[in-house]
């Protein structure tokens, strides 16, 4: 069993007991525990089941690399799946449930998959789910949906109770990793005066060096760490953050840091996670190394752990993982575990060392009475939910002549791999180190920054060195190099002297025993999380998978939450062996950020709830809101679709507004329309280039409707242009076009005609603009008093400055409805008061505000086009019968040259017509018109499509506009529009102007 | 004329910093040749300030001038005086190629004050706001989360933020989230 | 995520402040140009692995367009310069030559 020791545990506070639950059972731990250490202290070795076979799984590691011990943490709106117990700090009231089991952890039905393991080999998904076809829908998909995904998604109705934020940080040198290497590198860099930021993923400093022992400058490592941390904390140019993981390194020194602020104190005020968006001139990656498992049969049975992890649990948390332990290794470091366990009172049965010779640590172990078996291997671990016994054999051979030893835990060590993720994320290359059988950063090929030089430096064991003395020396060099590269002069100093017992060389062992027979290989796990075994990778190789990236996808090796932190090197060594290739030739899969999964909410940051997205509001927004506005998003704006009265449907409201505006008086909040001031001696010339029609000849005081095309001829915007004075124009754009067209104008002015004297300013939001529309429009303005708005004083398509009531305004006689209409602009700060005044004064004239749908219907009744309805980026003015707006006098304007390209002038282009349904019904939005014959796919040939379609309450029938092949030449013909509802809509091609063809109503 | 109302009418919030909507601020966008003497005089007459250098903000209270780009200034005057100042400026610049336009109502202005003011802004704008990188008298145009904005410091613990009026509500809510209690970062 | 120095406001702007504007130094062809010239102006673009010239706008900033010379392969930035020029200035060309001897791009070298 695993249990808590009476003494030891450098990270726990035995005076602070903590209560938590696991699968509903209440348990005790101490402040400073991780969930994993507390579970082990409660003899809960089995912490979950595997993904594919639902095999019982225990904790393997003690940190971020843990593949197995994933739990669902918290409840309700704080529930989160797939949390590693090894990186979860314990707190009072923590609730955890294990994953991938049904009905419970101890007894699981899915474990039957394990019995069928031989039918679920590598590439299973690809082989199985191909035939027969009907199985997809009825068998495979339901099965996959049921079993896919690790853990359980949070309840769909719950909303995350916490808040999250970003923070933009800037530093000269960023050090990732707060172990002894990171601390020393930070000190070396900071000595130059450079700004240094140091981040560490755990809650404590020093990394694993204090566990591994040795001395630094003659002191215990713990003491050295305390002193160094105090020293760094006292430096003004150093920022230190723990619980802050380096998640990813990106181009130009961009690094994401993932800070977990309240995971260990849920409910405390403030954000839960903070995503640091760091820009560093130089990055030092001091992320340490991760121990590799050994591949032997049954290496996934709960109780088999990494040797370093077993050591961590003793030293850091005072927890032993078993009472009778066997250590299996190919290196000297694992002897430290044997020694520490022995000293803690654990019965260390023997060290099975695959090598023939070991170093002084083995001797030390022997002197403590530990049996050391050189040249031996584990043939097989036996046990289901817990290690029961181990069969030992020779490392050389297929695993015969076994000796069985009863035990309850196995510590394994296959050597150490540097954590090269931060080096590799942005393109740093690796080199194969024969001596340590691992990939380490190739200093000749670092990730390159904006200046073309390397911007990441690896330090300590992340760079390869594993012995304490070498680690510190390397870190000192790295810190100095980073400061130098960041443009500072570090004070050169000798690294502190780290001393540990000398180690004999390790020997790579990729399989135990070396020629293990197939029955063993089928039980030798490479990837614990995804249930990938040695035999699966060998099968993939036999089936032709040579690329490690393909093998990863085929077998699922190295996927999911741990991304193969334990499995990658072992897996590719097996692949290399199977391919008879060298390991460096096979190479690694790509290291992609984040290092460990980070919360989606931290990526979203503040952008949730009411600040998920900006919502642009006009000055009258609150009034609309209080008066039944059914909102329509237009870009980031919210515009009123219709003002719905109690008892009305939205459709009712639209019809009421449509009729009332034609019969009485309608008000439209038109504030969102873009308003651009264009001024200068060359403004007229410039606008003549921007618009297809002539704007330079517009008289002061007058308005002209204009079209804008892109350089390749397509319509991009339209609107009314007013000439304000001799060298000033005001250009209205569509609601969605204000920023875009402003940018478009600036682009041409800055990048093509930079010698033209023109200034543009976007004054869209300076004004609240109200369209006063309908037969009573003039009456209501006259009632408010002020400027003369008569036909004579303010004729159609002109504008005047003046006052309406008390309001300073600019009144435009323009109409997008075909009615008598004024658009009146007042300062935004008075927009609401002006609107209120119009509503009050308009009561006797039957005033009703109207929304965008009414606006659309009114303009469609008049055959006016709408950018975004009649246009879609492929439509030219000629398609819409707007030839009159294309100046023939101008030599040039944007789009002119394009209009003479052959396909633009093609008579086969679909052209705008009106469409009147034969039975008065409304053609569905987006419907296509079909003609004779079928295309190559057997579908009926299309001859056009609907661009706008509405029910017109004024005409009491469906009206539509559409683009139809040869449309204008086919007036009176009937075309068919098949709907998705199975019906076919028949419509007659007519003139697009349905209402008041002569335009008499607007010109009164 | 009715009483003009700013976008949020002096709304305020107190968290790790105080966030206030400042009410109406007279603002004129002035585009022109910034080295032109006539323009310089017009700016001086309106604000008492010289033409600011690159990214300089010369502001005292509700009067001053900010550098917006190589050919654009933001002239700040008391709201009540903006029409008169604009008229004077337009008149002074009549023979010059320049554009002066009232944008007072197109904007909203916020004040962030307190020891954590820099940090509140540092959560929303991709800008180095450390003391050695950003100081009073400097202006920075950038983005505030998802919208454009500009800000300068009135003093060591006070930022003034300008955004478009239509997103005033968004920016205020943004500042509230960034200033929520317990969210001190502890770096500035 | 790139950082480019805006030559107008002097800010080292990260990419979220910038808007990419495609290839730099296009020569505009209008009415009177041949079909081929106009076609190439509209559609034909370089797609180099290496030195490239681009337009960027400091959209969430001073609003100005500028040019950047950079390496599409390593993302090394050789320099940024104003948009009011139809060819890269000599100092930019020199900076590229120092790092990428023998470089050419369209007619420039």
- Determine and state the CATH class of chain B: Alpha Beta
CATH homologous superfamily placement of chain B? Probable tRNA modification gtpase trme, domain 1
Largest interface: A-B, 53 and 54 residues
- Profile the largest sheet of chain A: 7 strands, mixed
* CATH topology descriptor of the domain at 164-289 and 417-499 in chain A: FAD/NAD(P)-binding domain
How many beta-strand segments of chain B? 11
Strand count, sense and barrel status of the largest sheet of chain B are:
6 strands, antiparallel
Gross geometry of chain A:
elongated
In total, the number of strands of chain A is 52
Mean pLDDT of chain B: 97
* Overall residue-averaged pLDDT value of chain A: 95
Q: What is the oligomer described by this structure?
A: heterotrimer
**In CATH, what is the homologous superfamily of the domain at 164-289 and 417-499 in chain A?**
FAD/NAD(P)-binding domain
**CATH fold name of chain B:** Gyrase A, domain 2
Q: What characteristic shape of chain B results from the CA principal axes?
A: globular
